[in-house]
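To: structure subgroup
Subject: Chain for Friday's discussion

All,

I'm putting the inputs and outputs inline so they're searchable in the archive.
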Amino acid sequence: MYFLNIIPDKNILIIEDKDFIKFIISSMKVLYKIRKEKIDTCIDMEFFSRASAIFSYLSGCKNRVGLHRFNAEQPFRGDLMTHKVNHNPHIHISQYYRMLVDVVFEDKLAHERPHNKLEIIDKEKIQLPSYTPDESLIQNIKKIIYDEFKEDIFSIKDKKLVLLNPNAGDLLPIRKWDSENYIELAYRLLNYDKNIYILLTGAPSERDAVEAMRFKINHSRVGSMAGKTSFKDLITLYYVSDLLVTNDSGPGHFTTLTSTRTIVLFGPETPLLFGSLSKNVRTIWKNLGCSPCVNVYNHRFSPCNNSICMKSITIDEVFH
């Protein structure tokens, strides 16, 4: 929304969650703002969070749309929603969120239980947003890349810029594809084509781990962007790149804004629910009987201590 200018900055209300006192104060400020503006509809996009249900109720909105457990054994969220929706684990998350919005405008469903007795929109009919950065942003990211390689790679004929996102600090370690796999993949790409340049990406907290990978690869056509870009720079980096390889994480969705080809490696979660809708994205998923073991029913706490689903994805599969 920030990049696409859909919502003005003044309409984005942020609650701080790093400190309890700040959390309480910022929550009160946001609730005051919502009530002052007399906002009439609140859409709770959480699954079984009690906190978001309570916040929705305290907002004072006359229309409150969100999940209700009905007769299921999910966590009790109270009876705080005016438009109660039951959970459907068989539809894509984009279809589910679209349904939450559609429910508000279906007056004929006002007395139905659950309220989401709607035909599910076809995923193919969902219009994806696109992002074209300003020329100044493109030139800025090219300068950052120049500083990394010490040469203007964009002047090279048939240049190919490949991004590898190892997610070295992933909050869910079982989603990670082993760092050694990324290193070997980098070697193969470099040997395959002398015009391929590789950038490793990651958050500021992953900078040291990513730099260690770069040092281990030790090649002049490999650089690191971990912690060196703003979020807007990162999206622009995707825009000027040719390929991204990543595990199931944010970048696999961010590239949907661009035409960049993307390979996403899924393991403990399912692309059937959370995969990218972009036609430029290829998903590799083993679809084991235990997957998805990270889901809304276990609060994303998996009992798995050996992610065979990710270990089974070979370098050959990704390379080819």
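Points worth raising on Friday:
The radius of gyration is 22 Å.
The beta strands are 41-43, 63-67, 83-85, 160-165, 196-200, 222-224, 243-247, 261-266, 281-285.

D.
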